[in-house]
């Protein structure tokens, strides 16, 4: 990866060694995120929440590890009704109760937001997909529709790649160095778009968010946890489900998506041919999710 120079130069865009992108750059500050609220939950953990849209049905969106509301909002643009986003414990302005944490704890966070908002449908991304899996195992009839985007874990812990990536991100945040955070985040951006204006805008937003809000150290243990002790617990899940995976994604092995779809009684599986779906097939992904939920 070419070396990022932080902060961006006054003329706009990243200052990098070697030939740079030829597209126009923007050095303008990132746009502010919409205002959120912090709500108390029955299990005593305060969670940050954002509401968009109006009316029924209500869909709750659960983000991935180290990500947040901003990263799940693009999935909701075509979804009818009210959309409820939140930050799991240890993310954003949500509380960080004493650890260690498990997927049972994350499922409580998700279930609490769904209950408080009256959500009947859910979308889970990576870590959020694991929490959603746990909710359906414990409460088979809780949701009518469930979308699992890039599930990362079922009944076996995540591999060493996930643990190493999270350790690097937490260490960068702890250092307080924006360039170190940028280096840790940039590996999530496909190489083809990493040095484009869109890639740089995303990177700046993530560095500002993580540098300002941070992540709880207790999250470091989650890659060693499993969503379920036994996938057979999903046999009673009543929700219509859509499971979405991607070939070549080291953090979200396509085998997990296939195993999850096979364990759910009513599930459709779609696998994209390459990773980085939010960058390479965002329009198709949004249309696929909205069509499933709006049906």
Beta-strand share of residues:
15-25%
What is the CATH class designation of the domain at 37-158 and 226-294?
Answer: Alpha Beta
Percent of residues in helices comes to 25-40%
**Cα end-to-end separation:** 43 Å
Order of strands across the main sheet: 3-4-6-5-7-8-9-10
CATH fold label of the domain at 37-158 and 226-294: Rossmann fold
- In CATH, the homologous superfamily of the domain at 37-158 and 226-294 goes by the name Alpha/Beta hydrolase fold, catalytic domain
**Computed CA radius of gyration, to the nearest angstrom:** 19 Å
SS content category = alpha/beta
The ordered string of helix (H) and strand (E) elements is EEEEEHEHEHEHHHEHEHH
Residue stretches low in confidence (pLDDT < 50, at least 5 long) are 9-31
Shape: globular
Q: What is the averaged pLDDT score?
A: 89
The number of distinct β-strands equals 10
User: Largest sheet, described in full?
Assistant: 8 strands, mixed
**CATH architecture label of the domain at 37-158 and 226-294:** 3-Layer(aba) Sandwich
**Helix run count:** 9
